[in-house]
Amino acid sequence: MESISLKPAHQVAGTIKLPGSKSISNRTLLLAAFSNGVTHIRDLLASDDTSRMLESLEKLGVQLEKVGENDWRVTGNGGKLSVNQADLFLGNAGTAFRPLTAALALSQGDFTLSGIARMHERPIGDLVDALRQAGANIEYLGNDGFPPLKISRASIQSSTPIKIRGDVSSQFLTALLMALPICGKAFTIEVVGELISKPYIEITLNLMRRFGVHVQRDGWERFNIPANSQYQSPEEIYVEGDASSASYFLAAGAVAADAHGLKIEGVSSDSIQGDIKFADEIVKMGAKIKYGTNSIVVNRASGKLKAIDLDCNHIPDAAMTLAILALFADGKSTLRNIASWRVKETDRISAMATELRKVGAIVEEGMDYIAITPPQTLTPNAVIDTYDDHRMAMCFSLVSLAGVPIIINDPKCVAKTFPDYFERFEKITQ
């Protein structure tokens, strides 16, 4: 297996320009594809996940034109696909698989959707159940509740509310919200149980408004799609830098920034991404943050970081980075309400616990929490497995900032969201 050895580092400095947000990129591509008009998307993330979405849209007859390094022109289909039969392979891209499942289930065609082995282990039953309530015709081609899927033509009805669980993945609700306006009918969605990862739903609603569809929200329990909704191109839209990716550099600055701090370009306090709140949490741990126009400067804490006990529902992806920062804290840190980690690219609670123990941490894990007590000194030259999970690889790079070498297996898994992460990380370390 390929690996990368990171040398001990003690300081970070300079400027990092973030890649585009994965969540915003794939949502924007789908909405542009189903809108009326042509959309010029600027600063789209170039990654495996967005490649899977672009490939699938092209197979579905959507006209795509690359007009710059990370700029695309998408000619919308007005909600009507020109291709009504296709086999789509989506790798491990949940932000492509779930929304496309919903959109195609409502599009009067015959489609199969599949992915890599891990994608076929990631649950999708709650989304399928919800779509079936609207009349969708979806079959499981393997295990019930999991991909791959076969979608056939169906008669869609909107007479009764669609009920969907909110406590497994917010991507299911996002998929429904984005797809239902394609039908032009009035729909009501009712969320069963507590809705997790609410900031990701905020991203969805914000982007839908940019494309002319205004969802009426009653708290986080009920969402109403108005009749005759249609997506309209905003003509031009910029993709924000990825706030989840920002967390690695914010964390690096919190423990190792030089006197001038580390500057991160691409996001600021006005970001529509919930993971920007990661900056607030590291301030509680002792870091110093200064917001600029489309940038953040972070300065290191004086002394050790303060341990935290935090409900992480508002920053589910960035919370993984807090698990690494716990190694630099002055006591036991506990991250709670992270059950969604279990159904991501890997079981992230189990994976994080296993790998943290390799560097000497004492770790306790539960169904929806992880507690980390740092060792007096971290174990040098630990070999970290990444489970084909980009965030595991990027998170554990930060261990080198404790002044110990670390070895990361399968570093190329970062291609999912940040293909040149390790090159960028190396440039800021000293």
3D architecture notes:
- The structure is a single chain.
- The chain contains twelve helices and 23 strands.
- The chain has helices at residues 22-33, 48-59, 94-105, 125-133, 170-179, 198-210, 243-256, 278-284, 319-325, 348-358, 390-397, 421-428; strands spanning 3-6, 12-17, 38-42, 63-66, 72-75, 85-89, 110-114, 137-140, 149-152, 162-165, 187-192, 216-218, 222-225, 236-238, 257-265, 288-292, 295-299, 309-311, 333-336, 362-365, 369-373, 382-384, 406-409.
- A four-stranded mixed beta sheet has the order 2-15-17-16. A four-stranded mixed beta sheet has the order 4-5-3-14, with helices on one face.
- The mean pLDDT is 97.
Blueprint (SSEs and pairs):
Layout (H helix, E strand, L loop, with lengths): L2 E4 L5 E6 L4 H12 L4 E5 L5 H12 L3 E4 L5 E4 L9 E5 L4 H12 L4 E5 L10 H9 L3 E4 L8 E4 L9 E4 L4 H10 L7 E6 L5 H13 L5 E3 L3 E4 L10 E3 L4 H14 E9 L12 H7 L3 E5 L2 E5 L9 E3 L7 H7 L7 E4 L11 H11 L3 E4 L3 E5 L8 E3 L5 H8 L8 E4 L11 H8 L2
Parallel strand pairs: 2-15, 3-14, 6-7, 10-11, 18-19, 22-23
Antiparallel strand pairs: 1-23, 3-5, 4-5, 7-9, 8-9, 11-13, 12-13, 15-17, 16-17, 19-21, 20-21
Helix pairs in contact: 1-2, 1-3, 1-6, 2-3, 3-5, 4-5, 5-6
